[in-house]
Design a protein that fits this description.
Blueprint lengths: L1 H52 L1 H6 L3 H26 L1 H30 L8 H17 L6 H10 L13 H13 L3 H22 L2
C-alpha cells in the first residue's frame, strides 16, 4: 500500500509541476505579445515621423521610401494578425486555468504526502485500498476538471528542474539533454517574436544608416 501511495504522490506532483510550467510559459507568451505589439505600434509612428522629417534625404536614396512604406504596412498587418491570434488563443485565461488546477493538484499531493508520512512514523497507521482508490479517483477528477492541458515540454522542464530528487534520479539526465530541454521550453512560445524582432531591427538599422550616413 505504501509504495502505491508514494507512486501516486509522485504522479500528482509531476502533473501539478507540469501545469505550473505551462501557466508560466503562457504568461510569458502573453507578456511578449503585449510588449511586442506596443513597440511595433510605436515603430510605425516613428517611421511615419522619420519619412516626414527626412523626406529630402529619403528621396535621394533609391528605393528607401518604398522600403519604409512597405515596412510600415507590413508591421500594421502584423499587429492586426497577431492581435487576432493572441485574442483567439487567450493565453492569459489558459494560464489562469492551468495555475488554478496546479494549485488543486498541489493540495492533493500534500494530502497524500501527509498520509504517507503518518504511515512511516512509529504511530503506524493502517491504510486500506478503498482510501487509496479514493485518492486516485480524486486525482483523476481534479486533473479532468481542467479544460486545458500542458504540453510534453512542460513535463520535460519539470523533470530537469527536479532531476536531483530521489524520485527522478533514475532518469540520469545528461547535461546536453538538460540544456536542450531548457532552451526548448524557454523559447517554445516566443521564438517567432525573436525572429520578427531580428528582421525588423535589421531593416530599421539598414534604413536609418542610409539616412544618417549618406
Amino acid at each position: 500500500m505504501l509504495p502505491y501511495l508514494e507512486n501516486l504522490q509522485t504522479t500528482v506532483w509531476r502533473t501539478s509541476g507540469a501545469r505550473y510550467n505551462a501557466s508560466r510559459r503562457l504568461k510569458r507568451r502573453e507578456l511578449f505579445s503585449t510588449v511586442s505589439l506596443a513597440l511595433f505600434s510605436a515603430i510605425i509612428i516613428i517611421i511615419a515621423v522619420v519619412q516626414r522629417i527626412y523626406a529630402a534625404q529619403i528621396q535621394d536614396i533609391v528605393g528607401l521610401d518604398n522600403l519604409l512604406t512597405a515596412l510600415s504596412i507590413g508591421m500594421g498587418l502584423f499587429i492586426l494578425i497577431f492581435s487576432l491570434m493572441e485574442w483567439g488563443s487567450a493565453s492569459g485565461l489558459k494560464a489562469y486555468i492551468l495555475h488554478k488546477n496546479a494549485e488543486d493538484l498541489n493540495a492533493l499531493q500534500s494530502k497524500i504526502g501527509h498520509m504517507v508520512a503518518k504511515n512511516k512514523t512509529a504511530q503506524y497507521v493502517l491504510l486500506n485500498w478503498d482510501e487509496a482508490e479514493f485518492l486516485r479517483l480524486e486525482y483523476e477528477k481534479i486533473k479532468g476538471q481542467c479544460t486545458e492541458n500542458h504540453i510534453p515540454t512542460d513535463d520535460e522542464y519539470f523533470l530537469i528542474t527536479k532531476r536531483n530528487s530521489l524520485e527522478f534520479k533514475y532518469l540520469n539526465l545528461k547535461n546536453l539533454k538538460i540544456t536542450l530541454i531548457w532552451l526548448k521550453w524557454n523559447l517554445s512560445s516566443v521564438w517567432y517574436y525573436f525572429g520578427l524582432w531580428t528582421v525588423t531591427i535589421y531593416i530599421i538599422w539598414y534604413a536609418f544608416s542610409k539616412i544618417l550616413f549618406v
